[in-house]
Description:
By secondary structure, the protein is mostly helical. It folds into two domains: 11-183, no CATH class; 220-519. It has eight helices and no strands. The chain has helices at residues 15-80, 97-102, 105-113, 117-143, 150-180, 185-351, 356-481, 514-519.
Amino acid sequence: MTKHAVPASGRGWSVGKMLGFSFASVLLIVAVLSLSSFNGVSTLLSTSEELIVANETDAAMAQLEVDHLLWAQNLSFVFTDSAVNEVTVQKDPTLCNLGKWLVSEERERLEAGHPNTSGMIARMVPWHERLHQSAVEIDHHCKAGEANSEEAKAIFSKKSIPALRNLQGLLQDIREDVAKHSVTDEKLVAEAGEQRALIVVFVSVCVVASVCIAFLVTSKVKKMLVSTSRSIAQASEAVASAAQQVEKGSRSVAESSSEQASTLEETAAAMEEVSSQTSSNLEKAQKTGAYTTDTIGAIDETNQSLAELKEKITGLFDSSKEIQKVVQTIDEIAFQTNLLALNASVEAARAGEAGAGFSVVADEVRALAQRAASSAKETGEMIDESVVKIGESNEFVQRCSESFDHVLQTSTSVRSLVDQVVVASEEQSQGIGQINVSLVQMDKVVQSNASGAEESASAAVEMARLAGELEMQVHRLQRFAGESAQARTPKVELSAAAPVAFDDYPVRGRAASPTLASLN
């Protein structure tokens, strides 16, 4: 099977790295665009706030100027309107709008944003107080009935009007200074245009960069997918070819195993005949071997053994008598133990709960005593039976002695027959052993071949299935990569004329055949 080289496109960045790079690039572009937009909007907001503050300050100064002009006009009514005989304007400099503004936070913010106005405001305070003080002096003349006196008019013309003009001049200076150091509407519009142009440029650059990155990454991924799909298609073809070769090899092995199984059947039939003859010879050897084993191995020691047996039987009879005495003693001890356990149970019952545990122990001791008595009784009965059997054994030994004399006479005639049968059986046994070893080896080889053929066939089927699945995945990958799947991977088709069914061959179960089983 040929090995397919890894495509060159797979040696660079992986798909995951390229996608990660593209996403990171897009995020970086979005971040840069967002940062530039935020910076531009922040600049516009700062400029707008500065312009709003300047406009509010200008409007406030203009309103204060208008208020005091109206204040002076109302004060002049004392001299121009005969119906007015008192001063109705605010005479306290701290209660008018300007007086309230001088002690407000708006003044502090103005001085903080425009330090040049601090001196102007400081110079404005005495003029403001002088203006309101002139109203107080004019009010004294009105209350004295001297509203149109020359002195009252002089106060208005020499104190009120100059103070008002100086106050107007300082308010105008403050407005001019604020306007001079603040952003104008034209500048705000210009900055907004610059920020819009900058954002348009940034957006254009980001869009072009994103399109380029997307095109490069898509092209690279597509090339990798196409190359990979082609490599997989080639591998699928190789797998299909290998599956067909494996299937052919499995079929060849199966046919060979069938032929070997037939030969093994013929050999097994021949071995059945040999086995029958061997069984007949072995029967003769077993019958004669019983005679020779009894005679050759035991005749020389029979007489001495019988004498020793008689002595041992006599000693066994005496020992049985002694054992009977011991059993009687055990029976008596068990009886006394039973009585003691019974007394202990009675005493434990009298003791109540304190003797409950001892009562259980006493019951167990009593049960053990009863079991010991029962065992002693059974042992005595067995010993009695043994004594009877010992007597019978003594008689049997006597009869055996007579039988051995007869065996000694027949062993001589049987020995020659045994020697002939043993020699023939040994020769046949050696031949059968060699044949048996060969058959066992042949059977193992046949089984191994059959097992290998079965595994190979299963592997071929599995490889065929995997080749089909691999073909489907290749087509999906090709469709995903945008490549037309014209070169289709050929499907694996195993031969259906003679399927590899190993259960049909006689090789299966050969080790369990009666012929080989009898030989083993």
